[in-house]
Amino acid sequence: MEGNAYLGELSAGIIYLLAGARFLLLGIRTGEAPERFLGASFMMFGASGILYSLPDIQFFSAVETPIFFAARVIYLPGCVLVGVFTERVFRPDARWARWFVRGVVALVIAGVGGSVAIGDWEGFSLSNGWFWFEWVGYTLPFGWAATEAFHQYLQAQRRVSIGLCEPSVCNRMLLWSLFGAIQFLSCVVVLGQYAAYERENVFTSTWDLLYSSATLAALIVMWLAFFPPRIYVRWINGASAELESARDR
Q1: Under the phi-then-psi rule, with left for phi > 0, alpha for psi from -120 to 50, and beta for the rest, what region is 74?
Q2: Do residues 51 and 32 touch, judged by C-beta distance below 8 A?
Q3: Which 8-state DSSP code applies to residue 137?
Q4: Which residues 6+ apart lie within 8 Å of 182 measured at CB?
Q5: Disulfide check for 9: which of 22, 53, 70, 248 has CB 3.0–4.6 Å away?
Q6: Rg (the chain; Cα; Å)
Q7: Sequence spans of domains, the chain
Q8: Are 187 and 139 in contact (CB under 8 A)?
Q9: Which regions of the chain are under pLDDT 50?
């Protein structure tokens, strides 16, 4: 990474770890599996982000490849768990959804295994055909999450209009959909990032900025979705009430 971009990756990793810990504790208290899946996913994103930032510190630069590989294999199960969360929350009775998750697992395993077999431990080489198996495997869960959550958001909007759903719950569906969409976009951005790295053996500032911006946006909508400040919740509920009042006039 160029300049101080690694600080953004490190900060994002810490925030994901905090969010993941809160979800895991919630899952333990409630006994609900989806909270534990999401918590474990965020913990993996956090640990991976921290590891990816370490080689920019001189002390760790000599072991860059092993650290990048560790970050890679920690990140990928987190993506799979996003798919598991989507299946359990939005499609619990759909057989195709379970096969979708299994397909994602197969793609990730094939991609990593094939890459390692030909010596690509870091997973940054677009010219390696196995990369694309892995990329599709970790990108699809975010696109699926965005699609399912947006569908639920549209349904929740109708329920809000007849008083069967809290506006803040409806808004959470929209925010989770945005999170998935932004993460999907991040996966597209890394293609340019990795292409530049393959040419120049360095992460360039332009792609770092794009990726960091997407990461920041994802963190903001994630936090607003699950840990919203009271002022934000009041604003969402108040805006909905004003809209309903205007419709009734």
Answers
A1: alpha
A2: no
A3: H
A4: 214, 217, 218, 221
A5: 53
A6: 19
A7: 5-248
A8: yes
A9: 2-4, 246, 248
pLDDT of residue 5: 56
How many beta carbons lie within 10 A of that of residue 58, not counting itself?
7
Name the average pLDDT for the chain. 89
Q: What is the dihedral of CA 58, 64, 66, 70, to 10 degrees?
A: 90
In this prediction, residue 197 carries a pLDDT of: 80
Predicted TM-score (pTM) of this structure: 0.90
Angle between helix 129-161 and 64-90 (nearest 10): 40
Q: Between the CA of residue 53 and those of 57, 61, 75, 80, 104, what are the distances in Å? A: 8, 10, 13, 22, 26
Q: What is the pLDDT of residue 3?
A: 45
Angstrom distances, CA of residue 190 to CA of 32, 58, 90: 33, 24, 28
Confidence at residue 246, expressed as pLDDT on a 0 to 100 scale: 47
Burial of 70 (0-12, 13-18, 19+ CB in 10 A): middle
Reported residue count of the chain is 249
**Phi, psi for 123 (deg, rounded to 5):** 80, 30
Amino acid 109 reads I
